[in-house]
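testing teh design pipeline on a random one, pls ignore if ur not involved
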């Protein structure tokens, strides 16, 4: 064999060896790459309302048939991603977002109609936020402006298909949410437990939303630790990662107007740092989508539709890069069929149990739950129950879970008692001015000690200085575990000032000092109202302080039986949009209890409110009489002042019998963030009254007509009014009010 032939033979053998080796590589590659779609992980960043653009991204990915094998998200990215991961199609997710009442979602309290009647009474005092806890000789505050009760309830609705799934890897689409440990700033990857609670933890902006405790760690917004979890998406499933970076531009100097704004700014800066770090981990096959959201802010939930459209547009711009991952229609349909969860029902439970309470009686909480064992459950009803429990004012958080899937099912409700309780301190301020000579203020301090015993006994102490100066104390004691029957032992000492008028001229100040005490037996009518009755003794010292001695100086004891009925179903105490209320009070002084005089006094009022959009009509009627029993001057009824004959001076008309009616119209001209109040209103009122048997001996004025126009605001500090009043014979006033008018 020639040298050439030998070489040729060797070359053939070499070529055959190369072909055989290549075949082995191909076979090995085929073994490592079974017939399945490329696994694509989706990483969604935080950004508040801007993050709703993620919904638009998902819509286009579905249109383009891009398969998503897992989702990771932070803050709003965790919310959108978690809802998608439990099996909600993008179109349905869009409907949920656009129909959500975001004002209600960020408002913790239940509908006011469901709040404990005792707490409703505080609404008509001059108290304002915040509520301080009294602990260890100092004051404590909540860890967030918003507790997040309604937020988590909304998230439970979003994630209902995942009910009973505690391992997030077993969701229709495997999922992880990012949070941060507030103790050390470490990243916490949430991949088990409650999806709704994981969402809630991931978006807990420090200072704005209370932290969430999970597995013994106190968790806040994950943007602090990883605002665009590309690395986690790759670890979870991603051969390729599609990352959506919403981005949140820093606040301007003009926008940084509060401690909360400072907190948000710091979260923005920390979030940007983590995003920059994650973007360095993008590979050549990964896709980055960055919607240009312009002036849509993190709080612009009213612009959700715009954000979704921008998310769609940004994704379509990258259609060429995304098209390589698109599946054929039939293959994509089969892929998605495994990821879309069927509608699920919560079913029924055999029992309801309250857990986690230390000082609160579980029976009191259980009485507020309207969900019944044996009947179909609904997230709506459960959410109302949880908000009703929260409305007692004893808790900073509340959640529930259902246990016993293989046997008897039990719904376990777990309220979290206020860490800054059970002793509370609040302050209040009321101001009034007619821009002339009638200026007044009241400064109030309230101390409340709750749960002094297992039935929910409470000690209340209030001190106020100003036009109405008093010190009041009460021991309020429920007599039954459900709190329906109660007793009240109370006492007060104080002094109030009332003007004495001759026409439009104030001619004297009448000082009424008193020491009062009594005991009541009462019945609460659920959250609807309450009724009480009992004896009361009052030592009165009334005299004219300055001006003409028109009214008598007296020092005497009045004693009798008082009874009261309160019904309060207004949705708001001031600038109500809907509902009704009524109050009726009776006092019968009798010498049998040691009274210097025998007389009677009956006073009542009722309010009905109806709205049409932003337009509201509020109708109020009131009246009082002494049944011609010679009620003393210091007990007389008074009319005059803002919204009680607005064109006249405060207390200008005083007598032993009156009737009053008022119709108010107002319209909200712009809303405010829920943590600041409900909004600013423009309105007008028409008022009419009669006053008979005047205690100053002056002639009865007959029918008095009055009205006003005003700007008003419902703020965290209470109601505020700036208005002009007018009445009969050219009467005219201007007024400014802050606090209860």
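output:
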């Amino acid at each position: 064999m020639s040298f050439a032939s030998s070489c040729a033979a060797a070359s053939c053998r070499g070529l055959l060896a190369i072909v055989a080796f290549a075949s082995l590589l191909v076979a090995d590659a085929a073994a490592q790459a079974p017939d399945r779609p490329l696994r694509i992980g989706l990483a969604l960043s935080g950004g508040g309302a801007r993050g709703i653009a993620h919904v638009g991204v998902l819509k286009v990915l579905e249109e383009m048939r891009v398969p998503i094998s897992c989702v990771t998200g932070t803050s709003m990215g965790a919310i959108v991603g978690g809802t998608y991961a439990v099996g909600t199609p993008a179109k349905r997710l869009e409907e949920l977002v656009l129909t959500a009442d975001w004002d209600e979602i960020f408002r913790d309290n239940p509908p006011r109609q469901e709040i404990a009647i005792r707490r409703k009474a505080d609404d008509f005092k001059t108290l304002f936020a915040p509520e301080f806890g009294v602990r260890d000789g100092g004051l404590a505050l909540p860890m967030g402006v918003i507790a997040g009760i309604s937020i988590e309830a909304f998230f439970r609705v979003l994630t209902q298909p995942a009910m009973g799934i505690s391992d997030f890897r077993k969701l229709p689409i495997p999922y992880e949410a990012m949070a941060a440990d507030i103790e050390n700033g470490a990243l916490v990857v949430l991949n088990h437990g409650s999806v709704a609670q994981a969402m809630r933890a991931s978006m807990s902006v420090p200072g704005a939303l209370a932290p969430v405790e999970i597995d013994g760690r106190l968790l806040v917004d994950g943007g602090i630790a990883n605002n665009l979890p590309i690395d986690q998406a790759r670890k979870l499933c991603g051969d390729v990662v599609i990352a959506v970076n919403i981005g949140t531009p820093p606040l301007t100097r003009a926008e940084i107007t509060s401690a909360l704004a400072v907190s948000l700014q710091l979260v923005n800066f920390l979030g940007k740092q983590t995003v920059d770090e994650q973007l360095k981990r993008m590979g050549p096959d990964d896709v980055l989508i960055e919607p240009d959201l312009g002036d849509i802010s993190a709080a612009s939930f009213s612009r959700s539709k715009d954000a979704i459209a921008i998310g769609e547009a940004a994704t379509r711009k990258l259609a060429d890069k995304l098209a390589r991952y698109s599946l054929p229609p039939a293959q994509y349909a089969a892929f998605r069929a495994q990821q879309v969860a069927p509608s699920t029902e919560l079913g029924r439970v055999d029992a309801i149990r309250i857990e986690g309470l230390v000082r609160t009686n579980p029976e009191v909480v259980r009485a507020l739950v309207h969900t019944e064992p044996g009947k179909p459950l609904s997230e709506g009803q459960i959410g109302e129950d949880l908000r009703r429990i929260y409305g007692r004012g004893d808790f900073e958080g509340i959640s529930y879970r259902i246990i016993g899937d293989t046997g008897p099912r039990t719904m376990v409700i777990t309220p979290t008692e206020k860490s800054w309780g059970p002793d509370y301190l609040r302050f209040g301020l009321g101001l009034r001015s007619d821009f002339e000579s009638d200026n007044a203020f009241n400064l109030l301090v309230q101390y409340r000690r709750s749960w002094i015993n297992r039935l929910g006994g409470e000690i209340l102490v209030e001190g106020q200085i100003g036009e109405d100066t008093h010190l009041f104390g009460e021991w309020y004691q429920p007599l039954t575990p459900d709190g329906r029957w109660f007793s009240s032992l109370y006492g007060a000492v104080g002094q109030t000032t009332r003007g004495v008028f001759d026409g439009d001229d104030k001619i004297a100040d009448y000082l009424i000092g008193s020491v009062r005490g009594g005991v009541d037996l009462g019945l609460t009518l659920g959250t609807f109202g309450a009724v009480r009755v009992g004896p009361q003794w009052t030592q009165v010292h009334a005299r004219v302080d300055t001006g003409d001695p028109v009214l008598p100086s007296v020092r005497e004891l009045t004693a009798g039986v008082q009874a009261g009925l309160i019904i309060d179903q207004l949705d708001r105490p001031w600038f109500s949009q809907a509902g009704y209320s009524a109050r009726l009070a009776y006092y019968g002084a009798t010498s049998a209890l040691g009274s210097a005089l025998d007389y009677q006094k009956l006073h009542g009022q009722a309010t009905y409110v109806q709205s049409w959009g932003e337009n509201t009509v509020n109708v109020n009627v009131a009246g009082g009489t002494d049944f011609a029993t010679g009620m003393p001057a210091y007990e007389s009824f008074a009319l005059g002042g803002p919204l009680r004959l607005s064109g006249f001076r405060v207390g200008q008309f005083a007598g032993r019998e009156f009737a009053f009616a008022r119709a108010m119209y107002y319209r909200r001209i712009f809303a405010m963030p829920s943590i600041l109040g409900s909004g600013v209103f423009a309105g007008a009122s028409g008022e009419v009254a009669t006053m008979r048997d005047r205690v100053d001996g002056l002639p009865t004025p007959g029918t008095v007509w009055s009205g006003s126009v005003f700007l008003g605001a419902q703020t965290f500090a209470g109601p505020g009014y700036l208005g002009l009043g007018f009445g009969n014979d050219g009467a005219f006033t201007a007024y400014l009010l802050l606090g209860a008018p």
